[in-house]
Known about the structure:
This protein is an alpha/beta fold. The chain is built from 11 helices and 15 strands.
Amino acid sequence: MSASVYLSKPGVLCAAGSNADELWNSVTDGKQDGIRKVTALNGKTFFAGRIADDVLCKPSSARYDMRIMRIEELCLRQIEADIERVKTLYGAEKIGVCVGSCDNGTEFSLAGHRTYFESGSFPSDYSLEIQGADYVAAFIREKYLLSGPCLTFSTACSSSAGAIVKAAELLKSGICDAVIAGGVDIASDTVLMGFDSLEAVSSEITNPFSKNRHGITLGEAAAFFVMTRDMPEGNAPFARLLGWGESADAYHMTSPEPGGDGAFRAMKSALASAGLNAADVDYINLHGTGTKFNDSMEAKAVDALFGGRETPVLCSTTKPLTGHTLGAAGALEAAVCFLSIVNNIGKAAGEIKLPVQVWDGVQDEELPFLNIVSKGKNCAAGKVRVCMSNSFAFGGANSSLILGL
């Protein structure tokens, strides 16, 4: 790619941490404190990565205050100085917003429809705007008085990865000089019951790539970057988005293409756009949901692209620590890759840390071998300069991001 795309240090809020530094400590120590049992409206109990209620006790400044808006606003406050800096540098009309999310105001819409079915009318404070996919992006535009492009992406679990891709395209085209990009989603009752109806939710904390895996552990999160073509000022940590790849295999509405062809093409395209080879990638943050079919196809795709390396590429999935945060997952896991790069700058081989995967360590012999960084296992990395983040969604909406120095 001809021009660099820079990522600021991300704002982060999830079950594994209330900021980027807390998230880094959790993913390198293998902390699962944020995965807790919750009870949905149907009375069933699930493990989920839920942000503590006391963190979200204060109302947001959004016109429609909801849990998702409180999560988003608390996350955005962490990058507010960067937002104001680029607004001063480039002007409000050159700042874009790209947000990935799957929740369409379920907190209000469920209550509103319940009232409608009981009384024949919606509550007086109810509006269809609440159910619009674009409200999570419109809020950012309103809050920071921006007038550039404002876009929302809802491609299931690759939503915020797609938002980051579009942000880079807006920068490279010259339409924007800076973009606030990322994602936000919640582990709502609708989400929990919906995935349970697909028999995809694990009765235990998710155990990806294990022979004993039983499915997903859901979660909620927000993660946002300020993306620019210009290197951030001062000594603030930054990484670059080196490349990306997307594919749409459209194999099935919910089931992934079994051979991993769509995932393979997304990763291969990401390498090509970055001008890199498989041997150049130091770490992969796997999509790794813990379902039988998703883990199988991803392992096959990784093996097909990286299997010829002399040293197997290091990889892990952080979903046993954060939960699967759906529309926010792409941005959250890109944040994990960002932290993996900047926190290992200048480190000797024996000092390097990478995100660990908490699982039972029983690899499924039906899957190709994966060189998983496990808790208590030496990661044996000589350097961490290039990281790949995978997001593979319902409908075959596949995205792969490559971050580096």
